[in-house]
Amino acid sequence: MMKIRHHFDDATLIAYSSGSLPQGMAVLVGSHLHWCEECRERASQADRIGGELLEAIEPVAMEPDALASIMAMLDEPEPKLRSLSTERLDSARTGLPLPLASMLGKPLDQLEWRRIGYGVQQYDLKLEGPGATRLLRIAPGVSVPHHTHRGNELTLILRGSYSDELGRFCVGDVADVDTEVKHQPIVDTDEECICLIATDAPLKFTGLMGRLAQPFIGL
Amino acid sequence: MQEDDSEGKNVTAAADLTRDRQKRERETWTKVLASLAETRDKRLFAELFGHFGPRIKAYIIRLGLPAASAEEVTQEAMLSVWRKAHMFNASKASASTWIYTLARNLCIDRMRKEKAVEYELPEDEVDPSPRHDGEHAILEQRMKTALGTLPEAQAQVLFLSYYEGKSHSEIAEQLGIPLGSVKSRLRLAFDKLKTHWEAQ
């Protein structure tokens, strides 16, 4: 059983619960929640805010035939969607949390990774919306250039571990950082590190190496 | 002096009564949903529809879908209330919280689909977001719950998140405050609500 040490900021869980995260960040948060009971509990409290606000809202009348038409639909057979059990199987087979497993559809090692620098490969999930969502695969001992952020950056560790100014991050852990934080993660064991990174704005690299790396990495 | 005091007490007592009534109502809807799960009684469903339908529709309109789409998504949401009622666990969530999450998820899916179409259209640069002046005061009257006790600045960031689906950066821009302040207001609000709920 994994021991999760790094969790989401409450503000992030509120953004998730209110449906205001870009898709990639929402998949990342959902994936951590799949693994982390503590964050699940806090997320359900954030949902409770939504429930209370739903009760408090000024109602808008439905169309006059709305009740009749929905009552007529109750006995219709349910449309067959891709079943949850298939998705569970994907998740179990790939060892990935369910929301990510169903989005990728295959195990990490079968993705078409693209080399973007020394010891670094990436897989871009190509989702709509601001910011970017990608998987990074970083070789042992390699570090990602020093960078700060214009917006928020979420990272979920899927394999291996890394260390930076904020601490050590292992499988299941999340790093939840924003403009205030400047960091330089380095893979700290002899195992490669694979993480999912989602942002809501482009990163800013700092220092000469960072500025040189930016066009290549395109993070 | 004496009189002022008793008036103050009366106001507090009235607020307590409203709060109790609203709490009872929430519990009632939770019971209705729980017994729908057991009995599959369509009359119970019609009651839930009458209460939650217009609220879900209002919520979805505020998130930015046109009324016609909001009507459809509300129907979808209520249909999944019917189909998923057996998964509802009254010890984990109230009916309003559970229904909120169903509606939110369907609304996000729909917005993503409509967005995909929108990208191909020329953009009208009109800010459709309604103003929030006075919203807090209205809410305070309407709901004597934990949310009504929050300072205006904290309630405002919750409204912008939940009612308009605005991201932290968008809220920061709209209010002209740093991103960090948006997050700290959200954290403070959340802490206060949790404390309030635990005391209940």
Describe the structure.
The complex is a heterodimer of chains A (219) and B (200). Chain A folds into 2 domains: 10-85, Arc Repressor Mutant, subunit A, CATH 1.10.10.1320; 108-217, Sandwich (Jelly Rolls), CATH 2.60.120. In chain A, 36% of the residues lie in helices and 22% in strands. Chain A contains 7 helices and 11 strands. A 6-stranded antiparallel β-sheet of chain A has the order 1-2-3-10-5-8. A 3-stranded antiparallel β-sheet of chain A has the order 7-6-9, with no helix packed on it. In chain A, strands 4-11 form a two-stranded antiparallel sheet. In chain A, strand 1 (114-117) and strand 2 form a beta hairpin. The longest helix of chain A has 20 residues, at 37-56. With 200 residues, chain B is mostly helical. Chain B folds into 2 domains: 1-121, Orthogonal Bundle (Rna Polymerase Sigma Factor, Chain: A), CATH 1.10.1740; 131-200, Winged helix-like DNA-binding domain superfamily/Winged helix DNA-binding domain (Arc Repressor Mutant, subunit A), CATH 1.10.10.10. Chain B contains 8 helices and no strands. Chain B has helices at 2-39, 42-63, 67-84, 95-118, 135-142, 152-162, 168-175, 179-199. In chain B, helix 3 crosses helix 4 (95-118), helix 6 packs across helix 8 and helix 7 crosses helix 8. The radius of gyration of chain B is 19 Å and the shape is globular. The two termini of chain B are 32 Å apart. Mean pLDDT of chain B is 83; it is low at 119-133. The chains are: A alpha+beta (219), B mainly alpha (200).
